[in-house]
From TrEMBL:
PANTHER family: FERREDOXIN-2, MITOCHONDRIAL, FERREDOXIN/ADRENODOXIN
Cofactor(s) required for function per UniProt: [2Fe-2S] cluster
GO MF term set: 2 iron, 2 sulfur cluster binding; electron transfer activity; metal ion binding
CDD domains in the record: fer2
GO biological process: P450-containing electron transport chain
Annotated protein name in UniProt: Ferredoxin
Length: 218
């Protein structure tokens, strides 16, 4: 099956998390906590194929407001591909970028909305995370390791972006010399005329420009 992340097409298999598909293909989805469902930076908007994804679980419901759920927002580290088909995603980072480029005046309201939606779910999110720690479902050492991996991955993405920019700047310009095809003219030249000239007649000279014939002077 295929997953489109920010209009880029990637192959994926059922059972994979959205966050892992992005990381494996070096596509940016925020994941500061290493995909442990803590930092809330891996929000994605599902624009197509929501029915192919895993249902909302209790952890997602604790983190996402009803408004965000209606907009098609999912938590990438908590969402997996359940069925075959095509899924299209838009990351929050890319959405901010597009808003800034196309509708810059809507950027501040957008950020305010996302901040407010996170704030109203903050108490419920804290309770959910505390329960995970108390039940031993969140290993502190594993969390530190995953965060370190996420930071390393972020630096790798930055390095790739910088390298791509440098390659574009230093890429030499190439020019291709083109030659006109004169074979037809040469072949017709042997006959004393070109193909085009064969169909042309000499232009008539205006009467005023013609040399007048005079009788010879004795």
């Amino acid at each position: 099956m295929f997953v489109y992340i920010n209009d880029k097409k990637f192959e994926a298999k059922t059972g994979e998390r959205l966050i892992d598909i992005a990381r494996n293909n070096h596509t940016h989805i925020g994941y500061f906590c290493g995909g442990n469902g803590i930092c809330q930076t891996c929000y994605v908007k599902v624009t197509e194929g929501m029915h192919l994804l895993s249902p909302l679980n209790d952890r997602e419901k604790a983190m996402l407001s009803d408004s965000l759920i209606k907009e098609g927002i999912r938590v990438a580290c908590l969402t997996t591909l359940d069925k075959l088909g095509t899924v299209k995603l838009l990351t929050t980072v890319e959405e901010v970028k597009k808003t800034f480029e196309e509708k810059p005046l809507e950027l501040v309201p957008y950020q305010a909305k996302m901040g407010w939606e996170s704030l109203i779910k903050f108490p419920e999110t804290i309770v959910m995370q505390a329960r995970r720690f108390s039940e031993g479902k969140l290993d502190a050492w594993q969390l530190v390791t995953d965060i370190a991996g996420a930071i390393a991955g972020a630096f790798e993405l930055v390095g790739m972006a910088i390298q791509g920019t440098l390659d574009w700047k230093v890429k030499p310009k190439t020019f291709t010399r083109e030659y006109a095809d004169t074979s037809e003219h040469r072949s017709n030249g042997k006959k004393g005329q070109t193909a085009e000239g064969a169909h042309k007649t000499s232009p008539e000279i205006h009467e005023s420009l013609k040399l007048q014939k005079h009788a010879p002077v004795n």
